Amino acid sequence: MRSAVNNDALATSRRQVRRGAVTALGAASLLALAACGSADPAPPATSSPAAFKPVAQEAGSEITVWADATRVPGVKAYQKAHPDVKIKIVTYSGDANGANDLQTKVQLFDRTGSGWPDVAFTANVNDASWASQGKAPFAAPVNQGVIPRSTLKGFADGALNPCTFNGDTYCLRNDLAQNVLWYNKKLMSKFGYSVPTTWEEYQALGEKVAKEHPGYLVGTAGDAWAPEVYFWASQCPASTATGAKKVEVNLRDTKCTRMAALLDKLIAKGAVSKDTVFSAGFIKNQASKVLMLPGPSWFGQVLFNSTFKTPKGQIAAASPLKFEGDTKNYTGNVGGGLWFVSSHSENLKASADLVTWMTTSDAYQGTAGTYPAYKKAAVTWLANQKKTGYFAEDVTPVFQEAAELVWPGWSATQYSQEAIYSSTVVPALNSDKTLTDTLDTWQTAITNKAKSLGYTVN
């Protein structure tokens, strides 16, 4: 699924991404009698949402919770705080590193008619695209009386977009991974450079860096998530859902080609690396020469602090960039897990309460490894980040701004953009082809994968 060149590094990177993205506290959710509307925008609906009909409920019954090893301590913390709730915890992969365990198991349970967990966590933000589909979707539409609308409204704008299909919301977002412009403030000051505010300024500075300080970097294009950093921010319609199983794929759109051309120039000059930031070679030889790096909010602690060991007081974050002429600076997103309440649960009240706790708690999400999707918990999280004293400047305003700037045109799908980019584009870059030259091959790969999963591609 991923190229041999980057397989080990990418596996390591995904483990790093998911490590620490955890949990939350919150108020209990009561099963309402009337359905609520969706709290977030969704792809155009092809039909009106069907009314959710819960299975027969058994108050006080045990709920089974599937979670990865990172989330299990949070579930246990909930269990300790709620001793009257009976919980069976099952540890599984969390669908990290390209795993497809949850869907495979759910398909088996669908055939046998039993075995579904009441609650499930997934690290794969695309999982809602299948969990929300079919005559009897695995995921319950939580906006229909399962979780209060007031709770859903507490998430960052657009945070629940990957959960929302045909007017219903099928999951809660654990965390966000909104992209910002990371930079080394100490180096920028030493070199006499100013932080760019547009992609054109970013390119010009990258070319200047290549000439005046060869070896220093302003970005990387060899990471699996490079499309989500650069092309998503450029509003490239690489996967824009126009219906439940309809998607637009157009890498020849000018908003795709402009980013490809920009990166090609910086790659050619050596200012943008073709390696992944988690490879041993990059960490050893290039980590100390990163001047700028567009990337997700978790880069601060996970990449610069824990992996690169960049000293305290050097790393800062700036607002997402925009192209000159664009009215707004959009950004992309790299990661963010989901929590499902099963439509088969016989104890929706307990299931919904646990999921609410795991995603909205100040006590838990506030100390998580990654930026909470729930706005109130994010405030606590940011305050705790400031207390660490690691960053050269307070990242609070930048992170809060970027959390509301994720472009809604890049849709959650059953196929992985990261896997396609890794197997199609990364090998081409390592064979000295340009991104521009690879756009047609990349487009074909996305189209073929989408069609194989039953999508109609425009």
Structure description:
The structure is a single chain. The chain is of the alpha/beta class. Helix content is 37%, strand content 11%. Strands 2-1-3-14-6 form a 5-stranded mixed β-sheet, covered by helices on one side. The protein has a 3-stranded antiparallel β-sheet with strand order 12-7-13. A 3-stranded mixed β-sheet has the order 9-10-15, covered by helices on one side.
List the SSEs and their pairings.
Elements: H1 7-18, E1 63-67, H2 72-81, E2 87-91, H3 101-112, E3 119-122, H4 128-131, H5 149-152, E4 164-165, E5 168-169, E6 172-173, E7 179-184, H6 185-191, H7 199-212, E8 219-220, H8 226-231, E9 240-243, E10 246-248, H9 254-268, E11 272-273, H10 280-285, E12 292-296, H11 299-307, E13 315-318, E14 338-341, H12 348-360, H13 362-365, H14 375-388, H15 396-403, H16 417-430, H17 435-452, E15 456-457
Parallel strand pairs: 1-2, 1-3, 8-11, 10-15
Antiparallel strand pairs: 3-14, 4-5, 6-14, 7-12, 7-13, 9-10
Key features?
alpha/beta; 458 residues; disordered N terminus; five-stranded mixed beta sheet; three-stranded antiparallel beta sheet; 37% helix
- Proportion of helical residues: 25-40%
Instruction: Tell me the strand order in the biggest sheet.
Output: 2-1-3-14-6
Count of alpha and pi helical runs: 17
Q: Total number of β-strand segments?
A: 15
Oligomeric state: single chain
Span from first to last CA? 24 Å
Parts with pLDDT < 50 across at least 5 consecutive residues: 1-48
The main sheet comes to: 5 strands, mixed
What structural class should be given to the helix and strand makeup?
alpha/beta
- Tell me the β content: 5-15%
Q: Rg, please?
A: 22 Å
Average pLDDT reading:
89
Which word captures the global form?
A: globular
